[in-house]
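hey
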């Protein structure tokens, strides 16, 4: 039987791929990897070299990584019982292999020999960085532990992986299970027409009458933002903030115990490795050096933002009281009241703006600014895909293929929420030439009504630019060593720099002109509406900044030993953090943490602060474009010093090479309306 997962001549044939291909493919690839490791161990008596240690190990593990990456991707974008079963069946085998690899003392010694040998000085900067990273990772994987502790470390990794998967699946199952069927449009007064059309189509697809809503963000959020019926807003708010929790009504999906078990295992892992806390383990691979440094950064940001947040909330409460007759502003009223205040203050609505952003025009505008910045040409391309709505593109420069990417834009059942970029294939030098990189770009926008184009909110546009920034970081690398090409080897708290950087162009007049066309007239965004959008850009930025600080501090405290020192529950810690930095207190039933997949199932544990940390870098980088006034020349420098070098040097070195100095926070504060020029 031909197995698509074992064919590495090109991209995987999704159309031919079946769940039954997974287990035999993974078994075969794991066997190959173990054979390769055995050969390297057998050769340990001979002098170590790049060609005898690093290269063969990389060749074997890359194929395993690519195949498992396909399965992980499908687990995220089209979860079915069959795909979930084979994913969960094979995940422990993958975890077991990589844990054993990281703990392999003979391999560790081979890499150490390379680092200590006279050859090391002759290696390229990229190869030196790979070896140094590998030595760090061996230590973090427990290579120096005794046999008993290695065994327990391996058990922790397997249990942690299974629990994180369970956490994610609980969130997805709770999200997919919820349905709100509204028989009449009368109860949906205030909702925009496209939201009504989407809900009607969702009901029709389910064989139901009226309007059907779920907990996918594009489905439920228009109710919170636009529905005049306060009781309806309250119902949806509660459903969303209690999913996968003890308050959600489905004990089988309650993540309470899962969270506690994940945190306990992380604490035990840190202790085994000799670290004071899991936060210290996490920061070993980041720009930030200590939990105290991160905490001070976040508290400083909170102190700067708090006066603006207090003013934001005071104005919102006054408006709600005087204009909406909401004397007691509840959590389920905030999005609704905020949208009404935005409309009154700036005389436009998000819905009005949305009519100017058809998806195809936005994508064309995105590709145009990418051409301006980096001289790239992006064209439709052909590849097998996992869903009919998925598009595929190629990136060329000077008529040469640079990279390719899949674009999966719409929300649907079986697809995890949010937006993300993932690596389908990395750039590297092979025996036949350069292997070009390929990316998955995933969003959760509202699907188009039948026979009509999809329209994006401006927030959707920003999200698309953000994920494309990640994609460019992966695809524009010029590093030929896989382990540090693209986003590989980049510190986690710097990996958001290129993505957040791209968001800035969503506010530029010339860029918006290229990507807008009104749904009726076809005219581009008018200057008057643009000026209103710009005036509203920092609407409630104080509240938004404090929210990010709240989540970042919560994540940090969960993992820095504070929870145990103070003998707090997860909920009690979150309440304490809110009392310290937040100005909005959510209702007691709110269980946000039960669906905080970023830190419990998404790799951001003790790293959620990275969004604000990297925003300092991205705002300062964009300030270079503001100062220069020439996108093309500055873009070439940004590409050369940030995107092209990938993880081949530290993020701070790359930033200084681009900016000429270390990063400063002033641009971030100015861009958020919290500091004047």
């Amino acid at each position: 039987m031909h197995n698509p997962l074992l064919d590495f001549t090109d991209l995987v044939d999704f159309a031919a791929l079946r769940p039954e291909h997974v287990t035999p493919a993974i078994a075969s690839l794991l066997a190959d990897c173990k054979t390769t490791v055995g050969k390297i161990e057998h050769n340990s008596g001979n002098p170590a070299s790049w060609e005898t240690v690093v290269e063969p190990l990389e060749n074997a593990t890359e194929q395993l990584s690519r195949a498992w990456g396909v399965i992980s991707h499908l687990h995220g974008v089209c979860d079915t019982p069959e795909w979930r079963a084979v994913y969960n069946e094979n995940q422990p085998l993958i975890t077991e292999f990589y844990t054993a690899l990281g703990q392999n003392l003979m391999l560790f010694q081979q890499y150490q020999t390379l680092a200590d040998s006279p050859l090391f000085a002759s290696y390229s900067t990229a190869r030196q960085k790979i070896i140094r990273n590998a030595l760090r990772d061996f230590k973090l994987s427990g290579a120096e532990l005794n046999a008993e502790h290695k065994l327990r470390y391996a058990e922790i990794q397997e249990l942690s992986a299974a629990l994180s998967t369970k956490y994610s699946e609980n969130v997805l199952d709770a999200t997919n299970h919820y349905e709100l069927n509204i028989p009449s449009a009368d109860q949906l007064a205030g909702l925009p027409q496209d939201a009504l059309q989407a809900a009607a189509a969702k009901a029709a697809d389910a064989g139901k009458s009226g309007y059907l809503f779920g907990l996918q963000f594009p489905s439920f959020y228009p109710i919170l933002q636009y529905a005049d019926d306060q009781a309806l807003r309250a119902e949806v708010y509660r459903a969303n903030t209690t999913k996968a929790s003890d308050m959600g009504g489905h004990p089988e999906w309650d993540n309470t115990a899962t969270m506690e078990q994940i945190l306990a295992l992380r604490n035990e892992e840190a202790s085994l490795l000799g670290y004071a806390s899991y936060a210290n383990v996490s920061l070993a691979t980041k720009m930030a050096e200590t939990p105290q440094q991160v905490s001070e950064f976040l508290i400083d940001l909170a102190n700067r933002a708090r006066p603006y947040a207090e003013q934001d909330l005071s104005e919102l409460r006054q408006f709600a009281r005087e204009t909406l007759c909401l004397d007691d502003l509840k959590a389920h009223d905030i999005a609704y009241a905020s949208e009404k205040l935005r409309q009154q203050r700036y005389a436009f609505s998000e819905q009005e703006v949305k009519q100017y952003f058809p998806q195809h025009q936005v994508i064309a505008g995105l590709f145009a600014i990418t051409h301006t910045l980096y001289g790239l040409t992006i064209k439709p391309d052909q590849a097998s895909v996992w869903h009919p709505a998925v598009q595929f593109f190629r990136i060329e420069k000077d008529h040469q293929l640079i990279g390719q990417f899949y674009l999966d834009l719409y929300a649907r059942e079986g697809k995890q929420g949010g937006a993300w970029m993932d690596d389908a294939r990395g750039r590297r030098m092979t025996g036949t030439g350069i292997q070009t990189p390929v990316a998955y770009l995933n969003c959760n926008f509202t699907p188009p009504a039948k026979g009509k184009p999809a329209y994006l909110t401006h927030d959707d546009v920003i999200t698309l630019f953000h994920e494309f920034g990640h994609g460019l970081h992966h695809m524009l690398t010029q590093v030929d060593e896989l382990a540090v090409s693209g986003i590989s080897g980049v510190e986690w708290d710097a990996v958001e720099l290129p993505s957040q950087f791209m968001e800035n162009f969503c506010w530029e007049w010339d860029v918006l002109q290229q990507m807008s066309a009104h749904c009726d007239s076809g005219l581009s965004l008018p200057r008057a509406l643009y000026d209103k959008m710009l005036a509203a850009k920092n609407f409630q930025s104080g509240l938004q900044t404090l929210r990010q600080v709240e989540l970042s501090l919560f994540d940090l405290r969960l993992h820095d030993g504070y929870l145990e020192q103070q003998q707090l529950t997860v909920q009690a810690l979150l309440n304490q953090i809110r009392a310290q930095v937040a100005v909005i207190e959510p209702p007691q039933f709110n269980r946000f943490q039960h669906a905080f997949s970023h830190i419990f199932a998404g790799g951001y544990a003790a790293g959620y602060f990275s969004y604000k940390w990297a925003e300092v870098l991205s705002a300062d980088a964009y300030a270079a474009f503001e100062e220069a006034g020439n996108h093309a020349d500055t873009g070439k420098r940004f590409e050369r010093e940030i995107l092209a070098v990938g993880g081949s040097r530290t993020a701070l070195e790359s930033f200084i090479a681009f900016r000429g100095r270390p990063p400063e926070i002033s641009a971030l504060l100015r861009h958020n309306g919290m500091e004047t020029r």
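Residues 26 and 317 are 57 Å apart (CA to CA). The first strand starts at residue 180 and ends at 182.
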